[in-house]
Amino acid sequence: MTYVRRLAMRGVAAPLLLACFTGAMVGMGLFTFGYARGSSYLTDRPEACANCHVMSEQYTGWMRASHRKVAVCNDCHTPPGIAAKYGTKALNGFYHSLAFTTGRYPDDIRITSRNMRVTESACLKCHGDLTAAIRMGRGAGSVPDCIRCHRNVGHL
Known about the structure:
The structure is a single chain. The chain is an all-alpha fold. 61% of the residues lie in helices and 0% in strands. The chain is built from seven helices and no strands. The mean pLDDT is 81.
């Protein structure tokens, strides 16, 4: 008879598994909100984006850019609405932490196609009047590729 089967027969397995799971969750929470300053990601402060050394170049570029006076990171990189905003932040946070934990992240940060759509939408939200003629010229429902030409506007 295996050790786990004997524990299960004694009614110890379920509480033991629950204790292990609870310990793991508490440990990850302490790491995330203690060492990794996880609570800073719940704010709109751009400094939170620079918690990770990989983003320091983007943060420094934003500090020098014209958008610094009118927008913070979340204005361009999260969709409007509380659920969509924090859903995006949670999804991105998961993938960022996975990449850093496994060491699988590129030196040259690249935007995902989903985040590109979010950012393009933010461009149109703020600059809709300026881009109206461009969109009309391309046909109804077309979306200009703002970032293709204006890649470094927010991050000099």
